[in-house]
Specification:
This protein is α/β, with parallel strands linked by helices. It folds into 2 domains: about 190 residues, Rossmann fold (3-Layer(aba) Sandwich), CATH 3.40.50.300; about 190 residues, Nucleotidyltransferase, domain 5 (2-Layer Sandwich). The protein contains 15 helices and 15 strands. Strand 11 and strand 12 form a beta hairpin. Helix 1 runs parallel beside helix 2, helix 10 crosses helix 11 and helix 12 packs across helix 15. It is elongated and about 70 Å long.
């Protein structure tokens, strides 16, 4: 791993003696601001100066912990100075014993229950369930024990922000120390890269991941991203004429499917020119409005007609639609399960809209235009610290999210 110049904030923190740090130290702020690389060096200092006893490293999963933290540590200490069992999570670094634990859900706390822990490092702490974090704190019973963590910003009602990072008693007593990092705290970033990363976020995600603010997700989700400029009027029937805005034709074609029984069934015919996505045609069947519920077989026949089967299109399917997937496969139509990671999919779709890399046919896609202007955050859930869209009038937006999250690489968000 190549380490470039550190900012003053990173340098001062890395060189503070472990005994002089707070019991809990949290590095928070924007993405790519140097939090993790700073903490890697602090972790090595913790191994050298910290209390003796078992250490715990946590994150969303063992794989993310390895990618975000361990691979760089191993590069620094060198082969022969560590031993790691990726299956069990048992880790030894320069003779110091650690346990690597994935903490992705409420049940993860069982992996540390009963252990006596001397030191801990938490990667992406805001993604850790409260039950796990509280159990971890209760196990830090060794004299001089320390916990260090990194996190990007999130909902201000999140337990971490509300109960620890802004609790006046914990801060005043020195139990908790919070260090804020932004892009300017990482001098190794070029202006070109900072411009790139800023262009990769929009709306609430920009305010969190670039400005480093703990702000609530509220209101219409794509309010800051959607505009009439994203509509086009050229004829787009794929069998006759592709949209005139496509520079060199299209390199790939996708048909997104959001499956509905009582809810609407939605298909989109999407052309990908390598830079932009063109939502060219829409199929929308609302069984309640039409007062007729279609079978999987009828929907499959409609899909074949919609895509002109056989065709060059790749079908990207709602991953929960197992029965419909079986019907399509029986007809010889290959399907790809959509990546249904909701918040990251929303972030990516918002970034593409903000960069004007999404185009929607004005006449052919009326329901897309209706939904994008009303698709909203669930404010009741947000008050509980949980973020999710309102599950109503969301079928077109789910479909669009499937396509973007499944097929678009991150570098295209700001290219």
């Amino acid at each position: 791993m190549k380490f470039n110049t550190f900012g003053r904030k990173s340098y001062d923190f890395m060189h503070t003696a472990i005994k002089d740090d707070a019991k809990i130290t949290i590095l928070e702020g924007s993405v790519r601001s140097g939090k993790t690389v700073t903490m890697i060096w602090k972790l090595l200092k913790l191994i050298a100066e910290g209390p003796q006893g078992l250490g715990v490293i946590t994150g969303v999963s063992k794989d993310t912990i390895y990618d975000n933290v361990l691979s760089d540590i191993f590069d620094v200490v060198g082969t022969g100075n560590y031993h790691y069992n990726r299956q069990s999570g048992d880790l030894e670094i320069m003779g110091d014993r650690w346990k690597v634990v994935g903490a992705k859900d409420e049940g993860s706390e069982k992996y540390i229950r009963g252990k006596t822990i001397a030191k801990a490092y938490c990667d992406e702490l805001s993604l850790t369930p409260k039950s796990f974090f509280m159990m971890l704190l209760s196990r830090l019973s060794v004299e001089g024990s320390r916990l260090y963590a990194t996190t990007n910003t999130d909902n201000p009602n999140h337990y971490l922000y509300r109960d620890f990072m802004t609790d006046p008693l914990k801060l005043a007593s020195g139990l908790v120390r919070v260090l804020h990092f932004d892009l300017e705290d990482n001098p190794s970033l070029s202006k070109e890269y900072k411009d790139f990363i800023k262009a990769s976020y929009a709306g609430v995600f920009y305010r969190r991941y670039i400005e480093g603010k703990w702000v609530i997700a509220e209101g219409v989700i794509y309010r800051d991203c959607w505009s009439e400029d994203l509509l086009y009027d050229e004829p787009g029937e794929w069998k006759n004429e592709i949209p005139k805005g496509l520079r060199n034709g299209y390199g790939a074609r996708y048909v997104g499917v959001d499956y509905g029984t009582a809810n609407p069934q939605v298909y989109y015919d999407v052309l990908d020119d390598g830079e932009d996505l063109w939502f060219d045609r829409e199929y929308y069947w609302d069984s309640r409005k039409e007062m007729k519920q279609k079978t999987d077989g009828e929907y499959a026949t409609d899909l074949q007609a919609f895509m002109g089967y056989p065709s060059d299109a790749q079908v990207i399917l709602d991953p929960s639609a197992a029965s419909f997937a079986a019907e399509l496969q029986m007809r010889g139509i290959a399907v790809t399960d959509a990546d249904n990671e909701v918040l990251d999919g929303i972030r990516m779709l918002a970034a593409m809209m903000a960069r004007k890399k999404i185009h929607v046919h004005r006449r052919n896609c009326p329901h897309f235009q209706e939904e994008v202007q009303t698709y909203a955050w669930d404010e009741d859930a947000a008050e509980r610290g949980k973020e999710q869209p309102i599950k109503q009038n969301d079928h077109c937006m789910d479909n669009a999210r499937y396509i973007v999250k499944t097929k678009i690489q991150s570098w295209r968000l700001a290219a």
